[in-house]
Amino acid sequence: MTTTKTADVDNTLAQVYALAGAGVDIVRITCNDRAAAEGLAEMVPRSPVPIIADIHYQYRLALAALEAGVQGLRLNPGNIRKPHQIRAVAREAKDRGIPIRVGVNAGSLDRDLMARFGSATPEALVASALKEIEYLAEEDFEDIKISVKHSHVPSMVESYRLLADTLDYPLHLGVTEAGPPPGGLIKSVAGIATLLLEGIGDTIRFSLTADPVEEAKAGRQLLEYLDLRERTGLDLIACPSCGRAEVDVLGVAQEAQAKLEEASLPIQVAVMGCVVNGPGEAREADIGIAAGRGRGHLFIKGKVVRVVPEAEMVDALLDEARRLVEEGVEARVAAADRRAARTAERDRRVLLQIQGDANQAAVRRAAVAKVAARDG
Ligand code: SF4
User: Fold this and answer.
1) Residues 57 and 140 in one domain
2) Would 3 be classed as within a structural domain?
3) If you measure from the C-alpha of residue 289 to the centroid of ligand 1, how many angstroms do you get, rounded to a whole number?
4) What would the pLDDT profile of 52-87 be if each residue is shown by its tens digit?
5) For residues 53 and 65, is the Cβ–Cβ distance under 8 A?
6) Is 243 touching ligand 1 by the criterion CB < 6 Å?
7) Residue 358: CB within 6 Å of ligand 1?
């Protein structure tokens, strides 16, 4: 959702483009006065993505937004409560073939329902949605999407579960007023991911107190991490570091992230603190680098393909990542430096001798073998 004044067409449109660039499919813009509605009329034809007008209190602004050509409406049932007004919007939206999201929000729940349920319970939120749908149904309006957002994650999850059990409309997920990152991000992921993994939800929004582009990137990333969207950008994984680390993992990861994001490569890259465990633990990554004995060990799908001085490891990673995207895994593994795997293995063994085998694999194997060999 944009954060600019809607009447400020240039800046709002710039934000819409920035959000589209960050991977959103639709953008919601507030339509809170006449100037905003007029601004929408200018923006809609120039927007790269569909525009949804966010409507509170004034049903006439919903009608104005429809006239402006928006591709969707969000109505808040908590503050547009007169049935004839809701029906008027439904008639106009139906004539134009425009969908409506029934956007219930725990913070602005219909006061009659608050009185009836005592608080914004999941049952109260779902009741609000049902009431609105009844008004829309009176105009045979069916092009509906529903949200029941709550700022309390367990209540949000329960509200959507109840909604999904009760109705069969598309659902828009969100934890409302989640706050600034990192807390806001954690709340949003906890609520939205839980539901998506249960098969509940069709669209999502992260409501962060942050630059909306951050919201968009986070939402996009979540969908990619859940395999609900194809990866379009970098997925950097890095070990948490430990006493074995041969390099400042955080510093290397940050440098690698900055350079790889700039290169915009849609691959999974691993930054690992030591060659003892790194290439093995990150063998699923497309490409990675592990430090050891003053060297960077570059690996593709767990196979070490190059060994470079530590000071050059991030640049070498970037170079190899670019080639990997251009040429593919097989070609880059075939082009591997034949000495690299031997060097990496030597470094690994030397480090194991110096640091010891933290996993004590040989000792544990021997103990297991002894138990397995016992008679009876
Ligand atoms: S890869 Fe190495 S440094 Fe990183 S956590 Fe694992 S053992 Fe520790």
Assistant:
1) yes
2) no
3) 12
4) 999 999 999 999 999 999 999 999 998 988 999 999
5) yes
6) no
7) no
